[in-house]
C-alpha cells in the first residue's frame, strides 16, 4: 500500500506520518525533509535549495523527481509507505506516475487533509520540531505542547522552529498550495483516489479517521 498526503501547510501531514510510522511501521518520505537533508549537506544544490525553501517557493520538478526516486530505491517497498509533500503540482503528479511505474506500483490512496488558512497560520506560528526524532509540537496548543518548554518529550533534544515558519513565508506557501496543489487534488478526485478528511480536529480524533480509511487499527 502507498499513500500520498495532500494538504495546505501545517495541516498535519508530518504528524500523521510519524504516528503511523510509530504504530504500524510504515515508511515515511517527506519531500521537505529530503530537501532539508540536501541543505544540511551544504552542497551546491543544497545552497540553492535553501534559498528557495526560505522564501516558501518551489524547488524544480526534475530535481524533486530525482530525489524522490532515489529515496524510494533505498526503501523496502513491500512495506506500506507514505509520501508527504510530493506531488505538489500537476506535473509532479505525472512525474510520480512514471517513477512508480519503474517499481511496478500505482498510487493507492490520496488523503487530503483539509484545514482553513487561519488554522494553518496559528499552527505555523507555534510549531516546534525535534531535529532528531522529527516529532512536532505546538507551543500554543495544550494538546501538543512539550512537557518541558523547548525540549522533546521523547528524546530530550532541544526543539527548533523552521526558518520558513514565518507569517510571510506561510503566505507564499499557502498561495503556492492554492494555485499549484489544488489542481493535483482535482486530478486525484477525477481518478477516484482522493479521500478528504477534516484536519481541524485533535490529532487523536483525526488519527482514528485515518486508521479507518486505511483499514488498520491495533486497538
Ligand atoms: P514542507 O516541509 O513539506 O512544508 O516543505 C518545505 C519546503 O520545501 C516547501 O515550502 C518548498 O519550498 C519545498 N518543497 C517541498 N516539497 C516540494 C515539492 N514537491 N516541490 C517543490 N518544492 C517542494
Strand order of the largest sheet: 2-3-1-4-7
Bound heterogens, unique: adenosine monophosphate
CATH superfamily of the largest domain: P-loop containing nucleotide triphosphate hydrolases
What portion of residues is helical? 40-55%
What is the name of the CATH architecture of the largest domain?
3-Layer(aba) Sandwich
SSE layout and pairings?
Blueprint: E1 2-6, H1 13-24, E2 27-30, H2 31-41, H3 44-55, H4 61-73, E3 81-84, H5 90-102, E4 109-114, H6 117-126, E5 127-129, E6 136-138, H7 167-190, E7 194-198, H8 203-214
Parallel strand pairs: 1-3, 1-4, 2-3, 4-7
Antiparallel strand pairs: 5-6
Helix pairs in contact: 2-3, 4-5
This protein binds adenosine monophosphate.
What's the quick description here?
This protein has 2 domains: 2-116 and 173-202, Rossmann fold (3-Layer(aba) Sandwich); 126-165, no CATH class. The protein is built from 8 helices and 7 strands; from the N terminus they run E-H-E-H-H-H-E-H-E-H-E-E-H-E-H.
Amino acid at each position: 500500500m502507498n499513500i500520498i498526503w495532500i494538504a495546505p501547510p501545517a495541516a498535519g501531514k508530518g504528524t500523521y506520518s510519524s504516528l503511523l510510522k510509530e504504530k504500524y511501521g510504515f515508511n515515511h518520505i517527506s519531500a521537505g525533509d529530503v530537501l532539508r537533508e540536501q541543505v544540511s549537506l551544504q552542497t551546491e544544490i543544497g545552497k540553492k535549495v535553501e534559498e528557495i525553501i526560505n522564501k516558501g517557493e518551489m524547488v524544480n520538478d526534475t530535481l524533486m523527481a530525482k530525489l524522490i526516486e532515489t529515496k524510494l530505491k533505498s526503501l523496502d517497498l513491500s512495506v506500506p509507505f507514505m509520501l508527504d509533500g510530493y506531488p505538489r503540482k500537476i506535473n509532479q503528479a505525472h512525474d510520480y506516475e512514471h517513477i512508480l511505474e519503474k517499481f511496478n506500483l500505482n498510487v493507492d490512496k490520496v488523503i487530503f487533509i483539509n484545514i482553513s488558512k487561519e488554522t494553518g497560520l496559528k499552527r505555523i506560528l507555534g510549531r516546534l520540531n525535534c531535529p532528531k526524532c522529527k516529532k512536532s509540537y505546538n507551543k500554543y496548543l495544550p494538546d501538543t505542547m512539550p512537557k518541558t518548554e523547548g525540549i522533546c518529550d521523547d528524546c530530550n533534544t532541544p526543539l527548533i522552529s523552521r526558518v520558513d515558519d514565518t507569517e510571510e513565508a506561510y503566505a507564499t506557501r499557502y498561495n503556492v498550495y492554492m494555485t499549484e496543489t489544488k489542481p493535483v487534488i482535482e486530478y486525484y478526485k477525477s481518478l477516484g483516489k482522493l479521500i478528504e478528511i477534516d484536519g481541524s480536529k485533535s490529532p487523536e480524533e483525526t488519527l482514528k479517521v485515518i486508521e479507518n480509511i486505511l483499514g488498520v487499527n491495533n486497538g
